[in-house]
């Protein structure tokens, strides 16, 4: 690994929160809050891919949408190139969307069925006044070529294409305005394995050629390991672990990440792996557990009453490896503090056997 | 050898659409033994789900199972039995677990009612007995406080819970064969691990055979003892699970294995299979995979390959079986 990165980040998210009100009764009185995202902070460097993983309902997509301001955050800041996006008015935000683009999961519903492929890709060029007329046509042709589609496809409609081809159209549309940062929300999860590989390779090529930064949101851990430089794991609206892809998959520290990784099926029938099977379901984000949100399902041997009391800070447990667990050493939450909160078991380093690497 | 539980011979299910005849399943033959788990893998449009629906004769017009197809089960050919007999098979002797646990359950009945209904239809007896059986089954599939939860509606449960209910419903009559069509695809990975574990436990307990349909080779590797790979409405490879993952023969199987990123195996670039699955109304001439295949030569475009025997219980629909030297030559050519 190289020396600590001293460049300033391209995107810097701090304390991002989204609470959705739960409304009840005739007058829509607010009776509670769904804490979809509950204080999330991270940076994305230029040209880097940050993976954001977690199970359904953990808040990963909401986080992505808040960065794009498709959902307004309840609190927190999103700084892009030194500008706080949260405080921008609609006009300024629209101008900035030239730099920040998005690729959606569903290639069937994210393309307007009444527009030709050419018009879909061209729309951004027109809105941002980048090119018009013949110049715009030439640009669209070039973009389609870059994502591996034939230029003749310009005059066709989305329904004429397969899922993989539609995802390529979505990528061409995102690239048209020459962004530096793309939020990719489950871009390959609707695709078959062989087509998924084509799209992943394409995204990696484009990143290399154009120096793009990606926030890659996905639930498929093997895809994220493949594409991401660093990975953030979310659970119930919080980031519980953040590390380089290599470190996170080799030595996950947060017990939730350990369980998540060990649940991934291994495509090798000769491997008999030790599996941490989690019991129960993810609790409702409308009523998250106290203390560490993962404590009711946690398998850490030192888990005790303190885990239900103390909200674990995201701490640097190893160089550039952050995890939120007061029982995983080292921790800044001192033993005395844990005892005062009802703790009976001292923190210890817990590393259950995980998928063998070959 | 004992007669297998299920023996499918030359199954053809065609759909007579306005755009021509879609040969979704086109001459599929396989067997499932008692207590065995067989994985059926392939990408969207390869015919795996239509194969499953055909086994239960759940094909609606314009689709139909062609008359010369054979599905031997319990000493009968299910293709030619009457609908009344089929009804006594479905849910009782062969049952199905669908992918989407929300749509597989009726939203306006409690889950207890829905499981009890299966018992009443097939077994008769009093409503009370059927209800008790339903509660007992909910307990078997690991639902806490089953007596209370039986009174709940599907929308009150999480995805993982609903899939447990669907499994309870599929197993309540103790069927000989369960067809699980992508049973974990809609679930998160930790819930998937729970459900696969549950299926394994129940299989050991009841000795049920399972036909596990999935696109996820990881799921197959962990659960199945034998794997069937489909492409273009046909079986292209079949092998014991360890052999398939160690020495896949068919280029399509090889492509699938290489295209899949795996935890713990960093690779710079994923291998890809160019193009996409052709529509079932127009399978290519010759080998149906030849236009996407890295090894294809002239013969592949004209001559439809049979299933060649590769090893014990291992067959592959690829001419490389007769001309193995072409595989090495082609690999050399590409690296040069």
Description:
The complex is a heterodimer of chains A (358) and B (336). With 358 residues, chain A is an alpha/beta fold. Chain A has helices spanning 60-67, 90-96, 117-127, 133-146, 163-175, 193-210, 221-227, 245-250, 255-262, 335-340; strands spanning 11-24, 29-44, 49-53, 75-80, 83-84, 100-103, 181-185, 213-218, 230-235, 238-244, 315-318, 321-323. Chain A has an 8-stranded mixed beta sheet, sandwiched between helices. Chain A has a 4-stranded antiparallel beta sheet with strand order 2-1-4-5. In chain A, helix 4 (133-146) packs across helix 5 (163-175). Chain A is globular, with a radius of gyration of 22 Å. With 336 residues, chain B is of the alpha/beta class. Chain B is built from 12 helices and 13 strands. Chain B has helices at 48-55, 83-89, 111-123, 127-140, 146-149, 159-171, 189-206, 217-223, 241-246, 251-259, 298-302, 325-335, and strands at 6-17, 20-32, 37-41, 63-65, 70-73, 76-77, 94-97, 177-181, 209-214, 226-231, 234-240, 308-311, 314-316. In chain B, the strands form 2 sheets. An 8-stranded mixed beta sheet of chain B has the order 7-8-9-3-10-11-13-12, sandwiched between helices. In chain B, strands 1, 2, 4, 5 and 6 form a 5-stranded antiparallel beta sheet that branches. Chain B is globular. Classes of the chains: A alpha/beta (358), B alpha/beta (336). At the A-B interface, helix 5, helix 6, helix 7 and helix 9 of A face helix 6, helix 7, helix 8, helix 9 and helix 10 of B.
Mean pLDDT of chain B: 90
Poorly predicted segments of chain A: none
| Number of E-type strands of chain A | 12
What is the string of helix and strand elements of chain A?
Answer: EEEHEEHEHHHEHEHEEHHEEH
Question: What structural category characterises the helix and strand content of chain B?
Answer: alpha/beta
Spatial arrangement of strands, main beta sheet of chain A: 6-7-8-3-9-10-12-11
Low-confidence spans of chain B: none
Distance between the termini of chain B: 49 Å
Average pLDDT value of chain A?
89
Name the beta content range of chain B.
Answer: 15-25%
Outline the biggest β-sheet of chain A.
Answer: 8 strands, mixed
What best-fitting shape of chain B do the alpha-carbon axes yield? globular
Percent of residues of chain A in beta strands? 15-25%
Strand order of the largest sheet of chain B: 7-8-9-3-10-11-13-12
Based on helices, strands and strand pairing, what is the structural class of chain A? alpha/beta
State the helix count of chain A.
10
Cα-based radius of gyration of chain B, to the nearest Å: 21 Å
Give the chain pair forming the largest contact, with residue counts: A-B, 46 and 47 residues
Number of separate strands of chain B: 13
Rg from Cα of chain A? 22 Å
């Amino acid at each position: 690994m190289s020396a600590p990165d001293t460049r300033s980040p391209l995107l810097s998210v701090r304390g991002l929160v989204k609470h959705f009100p739960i409304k009840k009764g005739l007058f829509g009185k607010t009776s509670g809050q769904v804490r979809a995202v509950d204080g999330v902070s991270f940076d994305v460097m230029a040209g880097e891919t940050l993976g954001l993983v977690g199970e359904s309902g953990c808040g990963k997509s909401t986080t992505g949408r808040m960065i794009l301001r498709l959902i307004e955050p309840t609190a927190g800041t999103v700084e892009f190139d030194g500008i706080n996006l949260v405080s921008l008015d609609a006009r300024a935000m629209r101008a900035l969307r030239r730099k920040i683009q998005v690729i959606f999961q569903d290639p069937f519903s994210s393309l307007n069925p009444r527009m030709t492929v050419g018009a879909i890709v061209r729309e951004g060029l027109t809105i941002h006044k980048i090119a018009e007329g013949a110049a715009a046509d030439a640009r669209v042709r070039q973009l389609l070529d870059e994502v591996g589609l034939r230029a003749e496809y310009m005059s066709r409609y989305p329904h004429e294409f397969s899922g993989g081809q539609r995802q390529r159209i979505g990528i061409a549309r995102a690239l048209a305005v020459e962004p530096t940062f793309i939020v990719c929300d489950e871009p390959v999860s609707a695709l078959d394995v062989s087509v998924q590989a084509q799209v992943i390779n394409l995204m990696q090529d484009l990143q290399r050629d154009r120096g793009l930064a990606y926030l890659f949101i996905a639930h498929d851990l093997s895809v994220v390991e493949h594409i991401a430089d660093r990975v953030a794991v979310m659970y119930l609206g919080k980031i519980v672990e953040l590390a380089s892809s290599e470190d996170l998959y080799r030595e996950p520290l947060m017990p939730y990440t350990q369980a998540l990784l060990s649940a991934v099926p291994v495509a090798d029938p000769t491997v008999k792996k030790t599996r941490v099977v989690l019991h129960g379901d993810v609790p409702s984000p409308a009523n998250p557990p106290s203390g560490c949100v993962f404590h009711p399902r946690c398998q850490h041997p030192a888990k005790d009453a303190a885990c239900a009391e103390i909200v674990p800070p995201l701490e640097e447990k190893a160089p550039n490896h952050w995890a939120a667990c007061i029982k995983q050493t080292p921790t800044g939450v001192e033993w005395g503090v844990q005892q005062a909160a009802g703790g009976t078991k001292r923190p210890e380093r817990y590393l259950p056997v995980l998928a063998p690497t070959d | 050898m004992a007669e297998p539980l299920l023996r499918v011979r030359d199954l053809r299910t065609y759909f007579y659409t306005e755009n021509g005849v879609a040969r979704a399943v086109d001459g599929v033959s396989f067997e499932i033994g008692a207590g065995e788990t067989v994985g059926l893998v392939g990408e969207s449009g390869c015919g795996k789900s239509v194969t499953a629906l055909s086994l239960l004769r759940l094909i609606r017009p314009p689709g139909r199972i062609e008359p010369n197809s054979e599905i031997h089960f319990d000493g009968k050919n299910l293709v030619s039995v009457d609908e009344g007999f089929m009804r006594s098979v479905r849910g009782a002797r062969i049952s199905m677990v669908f992918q989407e646990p929300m749509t597989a359950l009726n939203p306006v009945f409690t889950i207890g009612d829905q499981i009890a209904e299966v018992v009443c239809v097939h077994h008769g007896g009093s409503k009370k007995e059927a209800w008790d059986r339903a509660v007992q089954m909910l307990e078997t599939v690991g639902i806490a406080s089953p007596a209370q939860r039986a009174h709940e509606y599907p929308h009150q449960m999480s995805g993982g819970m609903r899939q447990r209910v669907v499994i309870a419903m599929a197993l309540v009559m103790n069927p000989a064969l369960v067809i699980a069509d992508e049973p974990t695809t809609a679930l998160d990975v930790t819930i998937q691990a729970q459900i696969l574990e549950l299926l394994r436990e129940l299989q050991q307990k009841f000795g049920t055979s399972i036909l596990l349909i999935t696109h996820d080779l990881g799921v197959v590797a962990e659960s199945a003892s034998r794997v069937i790979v489909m492409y273009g409405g046909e079986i292209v490879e079949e092998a014991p699970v360890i052999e398939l993952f160690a020495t896949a023969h068919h280029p399509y199987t090889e492509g699938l294995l290489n295209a899949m990123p795996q935890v713990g195996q960093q690779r710079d670039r994923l291998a890809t299979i160019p193009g996409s699955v052709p529509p079932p109304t127009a399978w290519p001439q010759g080998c149906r995979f030849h236009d996407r295949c890295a090894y294809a030569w002239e013969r592949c475009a004209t001559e439809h390959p049979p299933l060649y025997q590769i090893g014990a219980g291992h067959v592959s629909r690829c001419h490389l079986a007769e001309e193995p030297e072409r595989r090495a030559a082609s690999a050399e050519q590409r690296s040069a």
